[in-house]
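Lecture 7 notes: from sequence to structure.
We start with the chain below.
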Amino acid sequence: MKIEEIIKEKPHLQSPLELYEKTRNFVNQCKEDKERVKLDSDIDLIDIVLKNFSSIFNIPFESVSFLKDEVIKSGKDPIKEPGSLWFLPIHSEELSKEEIERMLFIFSKPFFVFLRKEAEQQSFMDTGKCPVCGTDSSLAMITENNERIMICPLCEHGGSFFRIGCPYCFNKDSTKIEILLDDEEIRAEVCLECNTYIKSFRENHYIKYRDPFLIDLVSLPLDIVVQKRGYIRRSPNFIGLRIIE
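Predicted structure tokens for the same chain:
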């Protein structure tokens, strides 16, 4: 489905869906440019990401170009440590702390995706975390073969995990896992042992929306219901939201 069609169906989700569309375009354009342009160094990759960040989010380039200097001053390599971008010092009277955090989260996303070179077959079985970037995941797809594939919200790696079980505390007792459904039967799998939850969907939802992270966003009302009951989402969604109000 096109974003415009989904917004017509779910007008209450217009703002996050529009931000999703821009973020998806941003990540995809960075991936395309990285493949198309010959880079002399990793620093050139920062220029590509900044250029696309500026154009897609309609931010004057002069307002974000300082981020390159901050990356260099930090001594961190965002190609190897993309999470270091979350801690770049930004001081703004116009943006709240939450808005700055979300901006840096979105800015970091292409760098996380660039990590996904050699790990296409690695599973989440050992730790419950993404084997590529070490991030917790709060989203999974249930395949036609009834296999559960965990999906990383940052580098977008997908890997198998136990069909029944909590990826945070490894509770596998089905009597301690509660299932809540929304009106499209997207599920919240609540762990009564550690008070956390993940969301899961079946392949027919993927066929409809074509992106697991879009499915996560159209089911935001489910997050609200589950979080109001006191359960915790451990990782953010595609646009950097973890606590949904």
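Points to note: DSSP finds nine helices and six strands in the chain. Residues 120-245 form a domain with the FdhE-like fold fold (CATH 3.90.1670.10).
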